[in-house]
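Hi support team,

I've been running sequence recovery on a batch of backbones for a student project. Most finish fine, but this one hangs at about 90% for roughly twenty minutes before it completes. I'm not sure whether the input is malformed or the queue is just slow. I've pasted the structure tokens below so you can try to reproduce it. Let me know if you need the job ID as well.

Thanks,
M.K.
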């Protein structure tokens, strides 16, 4: 194993120094939580009686206080394919806990909205702040102080970040994240994209489109493209918060059940021991999630071509542990971490193909062996990350982990010695329009630089109307503003992908510039996203006018309006469009008004919290 890459070492050291004061405050906070805060020893008899009143056969054990009791926080609902399998997990977890002399209770549920259902719809304006709602819900669940460990049941876009942010405020509790796995592969991704673009052109109807989508999203489990949900699972592995390589095992299989059982048994080993128990392997969540673990998550994002949404979620998750990162950290890490995986939308294979080729286990092993990952982190499974370079299998009904010596399919997964790209493909752009990120791992290099007149919109539906009316049949930089967290909750604009893809396929040079988000499935069209400051906060994107030449360049890291400086400085920013009042978004007015910059995580909850801590 080679020494740690000097750039990764330097970025990590910079994060440690930048975060020194806030990290110390955080560690002090969780120490107080264990000693004199949210723990069972502080409860009165009345408190306890309420806490175990309905616990059935576990009631007597919980009453004695001698055994560890685990809190389950679940994102179960049966509308989301990814979370439907969690319905039976509490029963399985309680059985597994009893096997090791422990108990478990469902501490609470959290909302789990689906961006796939709300994409392009009014409900998407609640999407980003559902993360903060989940964090608050997690805190409420764990505030009952009945637990010596926690199990987080969640997978999708905002759900894992929200669970982690909430759980970190109770970071004295050892905590394991328990995935449920992806659905089997359905319709080939290229065919799905082809039908979507034909529909955008009016060449197929809604029935053909629905049939295609139904063949793609067809059963229980996570969607199989490598978007935000599956990037979440990758990051939990990179941070050592899953059982090793648990992410992409299908729901309902014996192996999946054994991985869940193993997570419960392992929590009993690292949990906060009760009276009369001996446990010298206590691993509180707040100590597992340190600066090195956060850097590992960024590295994993780059090595696998993960979701751009984590340029927002990772800073928020880090802040919850007193750690401050920024997009410069992302960019410098991206420059030295090679792209080892091509998973749709960056390639033709899906996460099932990725897992079959060696998956996360292979990626971790390759990165560790080449000095591109912190191996010396405190994981929930074992000391150090090396165990995460192995994959789980069943041998004679027993769960064991084995090495993945080489990629089983180099069209999907490659070694560091022969990567798909020498860098991670996420670029930081800056200029007179602000700072933003661009994911280029799925963009042809000839399209990394787009210079064209702007077409400015305040609503994604207006873009689609212009496309249908033929107004965008040219080289164009499509600008969609007033899409930031303060304006409308920062919805994803994935609905625009088919139309922009059609324009690109017709030979035009096209880019998207927005202060909103794109999907975790950002694809072949260059998209400069999360532009900050946002228009509503006085950001320069608000100064753009139709026809202004705009340069978007991932090669040089530039995003610039090519307008005379004096004229640019004199321009005013127009008023935002009137807000709709039929979506439930008005309930989140407090969140919008207090949200901070995208680069800091776009979190009203963390921004407010830091004024008190």
């Amino acid at each position: 194993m080679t020494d740690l890459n000097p750039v990764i070492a330097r970025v990590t050291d910079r994060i440690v120094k930048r975060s020194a004061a806030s990290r110390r405050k955080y560690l002090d906070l969780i120490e107080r939580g264990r000693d004199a805060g949210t723990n069972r020893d502080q409860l009165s008899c009345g408190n306890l009686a309420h806490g175990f009143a309905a616990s059935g056969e576990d009631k007597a054990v919980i009453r004695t206080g001698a055994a560890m009791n685990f809190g389950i926080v679940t994102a179960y609902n049966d509308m989301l394919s990814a979370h439907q399998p969690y319905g039976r997990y509490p029963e399985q977890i309680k059985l597994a806990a009893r096997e090791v002399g422990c108990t478990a209770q469902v501490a609470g549920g959290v909302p789990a909205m689906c961006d796939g259902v709300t994409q392009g719809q009014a409900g998407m304006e609640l999407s980003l702040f559902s993360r903060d709602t989940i964090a608050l819900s997690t805190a409420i669940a764990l505030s009952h102080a009945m637990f010596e460990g926690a199990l987080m049941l969640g997978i999708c876009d905002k759900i894992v970040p929200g669970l982690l942010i909430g759980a970190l405020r109770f970071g004295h509790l050892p905590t394991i994240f328990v995935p449920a796995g992806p659905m089997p592969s359905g319709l080939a991704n290229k065919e799905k994209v082809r039908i979507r673009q034909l529909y955008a052109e009016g060449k197929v109807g809604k029935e053909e489109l629905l049939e295609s989508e139904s063949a793609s999203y067809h059963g229980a489990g996570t969607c199989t493209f490598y978007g935000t949900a599956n990037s979440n699972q990758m990051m939990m592995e990179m941070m050592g918060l899953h059982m090793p390589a648990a992410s992409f095992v299908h729901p309902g299989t014996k192996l999946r059940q054994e991985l869940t059982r193993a997570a419960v048994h392992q929590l009993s080993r690292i949990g906060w021991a009760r009276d009369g128990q001996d446990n010298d392997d206590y691993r509180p969540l707040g100590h597992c999630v340190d600066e090195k673990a956060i850097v590992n998550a960024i590295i994993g994002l780059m090595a696998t071509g993960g979701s751009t949404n984590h340029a927002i979620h990772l800073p928020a998750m880090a802040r919850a542990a007193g750690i401050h990162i920024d997009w410069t950290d992302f960019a410098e890490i991206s420059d030295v971490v090679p792209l080892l995986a091509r998973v749709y939308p960056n390639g033709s294979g899906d996460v099932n193909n990725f897992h079959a080729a060696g998956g996360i286990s292979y990626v971790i092993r390759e990165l560790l062996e080449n000095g591109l990952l912190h191996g010396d982190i405190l994981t929930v499974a074992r000391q150090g990350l090396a165990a995460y370079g192995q994959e789980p299998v069943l041998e004679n009904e027993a769960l064991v982990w084995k090495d993945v010596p080489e990629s089983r399919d180099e069209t999907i997964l490659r070694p560091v010695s022969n990567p798909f790209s020498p860098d991670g493909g996420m670029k930081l752009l800056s200029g007179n329009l602000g700072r933003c990120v661009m994911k280029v791992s799925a963009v042809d290099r000839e399209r990394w630089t787009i210079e064209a007149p702007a077409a400015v919109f305040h609503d994604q539906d207006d873009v689609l109307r212009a496309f249908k009316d033929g107004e965008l049949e040219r080289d164009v930089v499509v600008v969609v503003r007033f899409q930031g967290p303060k304006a409308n909750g920062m919805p994803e604009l994935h609905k625009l992908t088919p139309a922009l893809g059609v324009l690109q396929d017709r030979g035009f040079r096209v880019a998207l510039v927005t202060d909103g988000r794109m999907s975790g499935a950002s694809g072949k069209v260059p998209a400069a996203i999360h532009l900050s400051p946002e228009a509503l906060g006085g950001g320069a994107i608000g100064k753009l006018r139709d026809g202004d030449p705009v340069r978007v360049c991932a090669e040089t890291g530039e995003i610039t309006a090519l307008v005379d400086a004096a004229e640019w400085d004199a321009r005013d920013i127009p008023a935002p469009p009137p807000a709709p009042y039929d979506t439930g978004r008005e309930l989140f007015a407090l969140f919008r008004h207090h949200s901070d910059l995208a680069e800091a995580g776009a979190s009203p909850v963390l921004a407010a919290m830091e004024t008190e801590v």
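--
Follow-up from support: It reproduced on our side and the slowdown came from queue contention, not your input. DSSP finds 24 helices and 14 strands in the chain. No action needed from you.
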